[in-house]
């Protein structure tokens, strides 16, 4: 299941089904719904007896073997940039074919291929110099004085310099490094982290949000939104001194170790002399090592290229300069040292920002995007009859988070994240369901399209691509049934999302569950952090099955030995009946637009907007796949396909920028939003964000 987040270098804000249910993106819809009546609910239909009936033990072993393979180390956590995900795709295509599906629907293959950005690499030209009055120049050497940042973009710049302290604009803390500064088309110098570090009583400490304001991506989005031309990060002096302090403490520990070892050696008996000598040699080695670290260490260390991940290629150029280079500039410009400025800020918690008159930064940063081909895997079971041209999509994503990184909840781990439950379980259930439906004697009245989606963990990319580039007419797609994390059925509890997206769903789901002794938790909403969202955004009724989260979620410990195979078999049987009933009902499910009750939007102190992001959108701006019904965005006329490029006076280049810009407005305040719509620039000026408990966009 996807982790949807506002990216942060320090601590990503993570949104998960059942735990957070899209609180971060404004997609949590309430249990209240406006149902469309007049449709005759379908009753569950018992699946046709298969031509070759097989015991549960046979299908169970087959499913377990498939889980073991898809969740094996060989497949490298099925990260989109790994060899393993291609092995997984080949395996799924083979299984679809063996099940009896048509796997030659996309240019005679099972693969719907496309490319995405999966990282960054250093480009050929990276140079920087600082120029001042009377021809003064401070040249900076790459890897010695500065280094390009992978999370920035490429570009040339020759612009005035402005020191912006920590680069923080925090209305809630009444602190603004940008107050009374014009940084439009300027190069800004920004310190890392936050003021008053080490002070647990600081408003920036602990629960007050140090992770948010210290995050590199927060600082980048803030500077970008204010029109900066480029960013030069510099280490804060406090952290540098703390690193040095820790190194000296290691030296002192080594000295104490040596003293103890010497004493033990002098007092040791002949019998224990050898052991005492080993301890002494180790202590000597440790102290030599500690002193070498102190001698060689660069406490003002430049960020390695790749630190904090990669950008999307649309951001402004970003570099990291040393404290020494920064202080050389400040001295030449007649300004205090960075250390002195930091001390002043810490003392009074007041910004010490300023323009560096007559000084410019001239340079070029080159960061190249790494594009990787990924693919949805598609198999088709054709229908027969008057509704054969109508399609039911049954899906599950097969990608996971590879070796961890940003999507992991064990951020320090580089172990393979096998993702047995998320979502090898859904993928195997998809294959098993395909096998069952293809084994029927009589074809179903409607076409069934089985899709193993890719890129879900990166933001529903595969399903977003499919609905934009459907193999079969999206207008004739009558329903989408999705499985994501269905391998941990516990206490017979199954959560079914989307039960309010068609009038027939709730009764059908409840009646079918009785056959399999399932205890249901029904969620009417059609949006959520999995691939069904892409289809509901196209006004297609959806159901999404989920057996619950657990402590192994997005961690290396999500492995095959924790999967409940009998539980998965029950889930597959349950969805089989749902699929057959939907295919055989003469009437297609009727789409329901679920309205959000006003009472759920009027508490808390954060503005709520209600846009639905399109993670597959290309180019600059915040791409929209729709608006949550009844939301401010919906009422103001925001449409699927719109791209927000400006909010108020703030330029928007992506989701991060939009989130930060939204926070600048008070609930109820009218906001002018500029969008690109069908290639034309339009201003929408009647957006009124409302209050919300949670951060929503």
What would your notes on this structure say?
- The protein has 697 residues and is α+β, with helices and mostly antiparallel strands.
- It is globular and about 85 Å long.
- The strands form 6 sheets. It has an 8-stranded mixed β-sheet with strand order 3-14-16-15-17-20-18-19, with helices on both faces. It has an 8-stranded mixed β-sheet with strand order 5-4-13-7-10-11-12-6.
- The two termini are 20 Å apart.
- The model is unreliable at 3-53, 596-606 and 690-697 (pLDDT under 50).
- It contains 15 helices and 28 strands.
What layout of secondary structure does this protein have?
Layout: E1 4-6, E2 13-15, H1 56-70, H2 83-99, E3 111-122, E4 127-131, E5 137-140, E6 146-148, E7 155-163, E8 169-170, E9 175-176, E10 187-191, H3 210-214, H4 216-225, E11 230-234, H5 237-267, H6 273-296, E12 318-321, H7 323-332, H8 338-348, E13 354-365, E14 367-381, E15 391-397, H9 420-438, E16 447-453, H10 461-468, E17 477-483, E18 493-497, H11 505-515, E19 519-523, H12 532-536, E20 542-546, H13 565-584, E21 606-608, E22 611-613, E23 622-627, H14 632-635, E24 643-647, E25 650-651, H15 655-662, E26 671-677, E27 680-687, E28 690-692
Parallel strand pairs: 7-10, 10-11, 11-12, 15-16, 15-17, 17-20, 18-19
Antiparallel strand pairs: 1-2, 3-14, 4-5, 4-13, 6-12, 7-13, 8-9, 14-16, 18-20, 21-28, 22-23, 23-24, 24-25, 24-26, 26-27
Helix pairs in contact: 1-9, 2-9, 4-15, 5-6, 9-13, 11-13
TL;DR of this structure?
The protein is of the alpha+beta class and 697 residues long. It is built from 15 helices and 28 strands.
């Amino acid at each position: 299941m996807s982790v949807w987040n506002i990216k942060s270098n320090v601590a990503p804000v993570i949104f998960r089904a059942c735990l957070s249910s899209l609180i971060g993106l404004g997609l949590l819809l309430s249990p209240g719904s406006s149902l469309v009546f007049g449709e005759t609910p379908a009753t569950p239909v018992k699946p046709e007896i298969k031509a070759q009936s097989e015991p549960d033990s046979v299908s169970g072993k087959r499913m377990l073997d498939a889980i073991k393979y898809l969740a094996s180390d060989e497949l490298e956590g099925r990260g989109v940039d790994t060899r393993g995900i291609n092995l997984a795709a080949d395996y799924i295509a083979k299984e679809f074919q063996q099940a009896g599906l048509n796997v030659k629907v996309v240019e005679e293959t099972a693969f719907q291929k496309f490319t995405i950005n999966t990282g960054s690499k250093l480009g050929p030209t990276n140079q920087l110099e600082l120029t001042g009055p009377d021809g003064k120049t401070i040249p900076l050497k790459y890897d010695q004085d500065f280094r390009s940042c992978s999370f920035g973009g490429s570009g040339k710049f020759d612009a005035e310099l402005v020191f912006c302290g920590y680069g923080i604009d925090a209305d809630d803390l009444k602190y603004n490094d940008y107050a009374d500064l014009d940084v439009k088309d300027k190069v800004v110098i920004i310190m890392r982290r936050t003021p008053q570090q080490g002070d647990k009583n600081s408003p920036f400490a602990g629960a007050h949000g140090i992770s948010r304001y210290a995050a590199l991506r927060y600082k980048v989005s803030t500077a970008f939104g204010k029109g900066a031309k480029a960013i030069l990060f510099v280490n804060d002096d406090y952290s540098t001194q703390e690193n040095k302090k820790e190194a000296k403490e290691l030296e002192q520990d080594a000295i104490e170790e040596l003293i103890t070892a010497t004493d033990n050696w002098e007092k040791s008996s002949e019998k224990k002399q050898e052991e005492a000598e080993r301890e002494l040699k180790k202590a000597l080695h440790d102290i030599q090592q500690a002193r070498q670290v102190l001698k060689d260490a660069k406490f003002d260390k430049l960020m390695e290229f790749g630190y904090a991940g990669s950008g999307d290629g649309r951001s402004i150029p970003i570099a990291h300069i040393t404290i020494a280079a920064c202080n050389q500039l400040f001295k030449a410009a007649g300004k205090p040292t960075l250390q002195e400025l930091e001390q002043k800020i810490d003392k009074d918690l007041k910004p010490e920002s300023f323009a560096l008159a007559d000084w410019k930064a001239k340079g070029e940063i080159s960061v190249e995007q790494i594009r990787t081909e990924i693919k949805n895997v598609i198999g088709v079971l054709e229908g027969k009859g008057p509704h054969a041209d109508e399609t039911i999509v049954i899906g599950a994503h097969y990608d996971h988070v590879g070796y961890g990184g940003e999507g992991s909840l064990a951020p320090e781990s580089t172990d393979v994240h096998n993702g047995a439950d998320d979502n090898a379980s859904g993928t195997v259930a998809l294959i098993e369901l395909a096998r069952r439906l293809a084994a029927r004697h009589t074809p179903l009245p409607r076409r069934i399209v089985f899709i193993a989606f890719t890129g879900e963990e990166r933001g529903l990319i595969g399903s977003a691509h499919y609905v934009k580039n459907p193999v079969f007419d999206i207008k004739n797609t009558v329903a989408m049934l999705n499985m994501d994390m269905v391998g941990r059925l516990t206490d017979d509890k199954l959560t079914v999302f989307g039960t309010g997206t068609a009038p027939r769903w709730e009764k059908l789901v409840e009646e079918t569950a009785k056959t399999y002794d399932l205890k249901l938790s029904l969620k009417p909403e059609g949006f959520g952090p999995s691939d069904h969202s892409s289809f509901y955004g196209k006004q297609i009724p959806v159901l999404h099955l989920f057996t619950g989260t657990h402590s192994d979620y997005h961690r290396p410990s999500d492995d095959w030995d924790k999967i409940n195979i009998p539980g998965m078999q029950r889930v597959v049987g349950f969805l089989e009946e749902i699929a057959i009933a939907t295919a055989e009902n003469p009437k297609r499910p009727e789409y329901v637009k679920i309205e959000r009750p006003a009472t759920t939007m009027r508490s808390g102190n954060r503005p709520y907007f209600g846009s639905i992001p399109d993670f597959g959108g290309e180019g600059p701006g915040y791409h929209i796949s729709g608006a949550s019904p009844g939301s401010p965005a919906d009422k103001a006329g925001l449409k699927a396909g719109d791209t927000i490029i400006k909010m108020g006076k703030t330029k928007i280049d992506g989701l991060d920028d939009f989130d930060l810009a939204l926070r600048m407005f008070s609930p109820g305040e009218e906001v002018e939003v500029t969008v690109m719509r069908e290639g034309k620039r339009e201003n929408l000026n009647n957006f009124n964000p409302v209050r919300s408990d949670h951060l929503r966009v």
